[in-house]
Amino acid sequence: MASLLVKAFVRDCEQVGDTRVRARYGTLSGAVGIAANVLLFAAKLAVGTLAGSVSIVADAVNNLSDAGSSIISLLGFKISEKPADRDHPFGHGRTEYVAGLIIAFLILLLGFELGRTSLDKVLHPSPVETSAVTLAVLAGSIACKVWLWSFNRRIGKAISSSTILATAQDSLNDVVATSAVLAASVVSLLTPLNLDGYMGLAVAAFILFSGYGVAKDTLNPLLGQAPDSALVGEISRKVLSHPQVLGIHDLMVHNYGPGRIFASLHAEVDSSADILQSHDLIDNIEKDLAQEMGIQMIIHMDPIVTNNDTVNALRQTALECVQRVRSDLSIHDFRAVLGETHSNLIFDVMVPVDCPVKNHDLCTQIEAQLREVDPRYNAVITVDRGYQVDYGERHG
User: The Cation efflux protein cytoplasmic domain covers which part of the protein (predicted)?
Assistant: First the structure.
């Protein structure tokens, strides 16, 4: 059925990299979620009210919140589809993450309120009337939520949407929560035990857990999380596949929403090569990354000396001294200004962002190592902190 819905309502469904196609997928997911959850809310509210069950009513309200979440998700996809404008030069793609964050807030608020109501039911229990209709509605709800989980999971994976994948996870949480309510209803039907308030607390706990997960998944890209290591590795591999590129560093990846990735890096080339040929190479690499990976890349060209044995030896010496301080450090942009009484060794040191040693202390330790090799060496060091990547440079 999922395939039929996609084919019927998502034009050009294979073109998942197209923002318009993504919006169609998001619209379909939102519309299906709204319809299913409104029906479940109405059915559960009716049987829960008739049975006097706070846990069933809580589960019904949870479905209503899911419908509201689907509306917000749908609006988020529609807004994110808008092209770039003067005020938003990188597009509106992050609206999808904002929608997910609003959904998370609503889920957490709902979980808190339902937990408070259920606690009151535990402290002041009242009889629950369970019927075959009640059990049938709960069982049907479980089957519907299992299908919604599968449907949204498929769409979320197809377009790499954290918002829709969070919606799928929320449906799976609902399966567990409704199963707990169903179990409580069966127990109350077969025994004198009244677990209604306790199961209401369980439902509230699942809702809070779900809200936390959605908030985490949508807040990280808004705060600027580190890019996926596989993506960084693929960018590095493609750039370094050109033998004229001797090394790369300072790779930065910016996510402005699904399908809107901008990146920049420095590519080291032989300083003796024809500058026009090197520039042409860099232009071609940028175009290839845009066509093959959909990434808008800006590459800064760094010319380095490769045919000077003295400079090459000093570069290797500097690298060895740096790695004696910490093995996870690396260097780039090495230059040397040689003199009779002292020589300036100028280079950048790449430091992991979680390194506990302060920049000043690292520089002091590195310079001490260099002076042990030759007291005339004077280190001029720039520290770069960021996520470490094994770029695979072809030089030391």
Answer: 227-303
